[in-house]
Amino acid sequence: MPNPPAFASDPANPQPHGAGVARWHSLLEGRWLGVPWPILLMVGYFVLQATLLTLTRNGASFDGAEQLVTAQALQWGYGRSQPPLYTWLLVALQQFITAPLAAEHVLKALLFIAGYLAIYGSARRIGLGRPASTLAMLFLFLMPEIGWQAQTAYTHSALVFSTGAMLLFVYLGLAPTSPAWEHALFSALAGLAMLSKFSAGYLVVAMLVGLAATHQLRLCFPVRRLLLTLAVFAAIVAPHALWSLNHLDLLFALSGRFELETYANPLVGRLIGLATYCVSVLVFIAPLGVVAGAASGFPWRFLRPMSAGEQRLHAMFLAGLAVMALTPVVSGASDFAPRWPLAAVFPYSLVAASFVDRLRPERIGPLVLFCAAIAVAFMLAINTRSSLPGSRYENDYAGLLARLEDQVGPIQSAVISDYPVLANLRIARPELRLIMPEFPFTERFLDRDTVYLWTGDEGMPGSLVAEAAKVGRDPQSLTTVEVPIIDSYGNVTDATLHAAVSTRP
């Protein structure tokens, strides 16, 4: 059986380029210390972003606040419908960077650097030159869920982008002649992607369908290699899978967000779910699609055919969209958040870069500059928004903890509600132990001296009352104090911290 065509560009068949293309290629192929300067700038961008976020933010995002709770201990699983790999990585990094907020920003910077490098490498692997590969990397900034939200707010989604991009790089290089270690690496990354976010399963299935569609599945996965792949994958996911089977209530704790079977007419619910999915995908890719389409213009006269790697990429991408579209049809889910398709949709940056390269290679340079400008604008906007008075990121959590302890004495552990605000107390004191009823493993920190914290004007939440009962505390016997929440500018916010304690000091 002959080997498939190589994925790299064939020097014997150069692509037609004009003077404008040559000029941009000369600029974008420059190197410094032997490394292409676009890659160096990309690495510098995320290092600077992590530094600025650490300096300008006092608090974590919603997802980051959740990690302030889960990262208190290593577990095979944590629940809330998310796998554990992000928390494991954060716990490991906090052994070297003890400041929780700095550790989170450094971890995200490393994830994005790895993911963007993998996209660049994947573009090179399917035959794109360095300028088009740079464009594929920068096109990610035109996907709001990656270029904006994942940098600032997401945790597991940022990780699945990184592991998915690395998996894509290995996938595009699989061939019948690939050594066994490449198959092992593919399955290992597939397992890590599944431990990043469960939606990575769509990407893995799409890759297998893409190989089948290009008649490479049996060639790339003969029986022995297939068994090796399955064994490595199973070894990686098995511990969490076993934990999940024993904690199904925690695993599906947030399944209600999908609004499963909420319509009296199942057909109506499935049609609404399919429409919501389509809207989510459009929201994800529309900005990039509009820019790439406008730059390519009409009529579409491709200057070259697709390489074998591009064919595999396109087959995989279309398969991912189709497989994910089956979710509302099969499950009855009627709600899709814009970020949920991320694991299957992020390769669109490669698809779009390939599209432009085949149609209008002379426009790659201007598009690179445009995307770079968008990236800089995002950085400025992200850090400006974080610094605005009234932002949750600007609450003075160190001062809040100090004022609280002035009234109730030293605090070793606390049961909290409203975790997006109160979990940030661990930023002020990392050794503070927080208990959340949603994470049963945190109950190991519960004792009779634990303080109960909540915000809002209502009384002590029922979840906190239940936790107090576990250590024999009657809420009526607890003393309640109020502490205003003040931001770093000295402004009193609308929120008030309530604390219930056994005795006053």
Report a brief summary of the structure.
The chain is built from 22 helices and seven strands. By secondary structure, it is of the alpha/beta class.
Structural features:
505 residues; 22 helices; two-stranded antiparallel ribbon; transmembrane helix; five-stranded mixed β-sheet; alpha/beta; 7 strands; disordered N terminus; 2 domains
If you had to describe this structure to a student in words, what would you say it looks like?
One of its GO terms (molecular function) is pentosyltransferase activity. It comes from Tianweitania sediminis. InterPro entries: LipidA_mod_glycosyltrf_83, RgtA/B/C-like. It is a multi-pass membrane protein. It is an enzyme of class 2 (transferase). This protein has 505 residues and is of the alpha/beta class. It has two domains: 19-385, no CATH class; 395-501, no CATH class. It is built from 22 helices and seven strands. A five-stranded mixed sheet has the order 4-3-5-7-6, with helices on both faces. A two-stranded antiparallel sheet has the order 1-2. Strand 1 (31-32) and strand 2 form a beta hairpin. Helix 2 (37-56) packs parallel to helix 18 (364-387) and helix 15 (308-331) crosses helix 17 (348-359). The chain is globular and about 80 Å long.
Q: What structural category arises from helix and sheet content?
A: alpha/beta
Number of helices: 22
What pattern of helices and strands is seen along the backbone?
A: HEEHHHHHHHHHHHHHHHHHHEHHEEHEE
Strand order of the largest sheet: 4-3-5-7-6
Helical proportion, percent range: 55-70%
How would you sum up the global shape?
A: globular
Gap from first CA to last CA:
81 Å
DSSP strand tally? 7
Low-confidence stretches: 1-16
Overall mean pLDDT stands at 86
Number of domains: 2
Keywords: Cell membrane, Glycosyltransferase, Membrane, Transferase, Transmembrane, Transmembrane helix
Subcellular location: Cell membrane
Domain Glycosyltransferase RgtA/B/C/D-like: 82-243
Main location: membrane
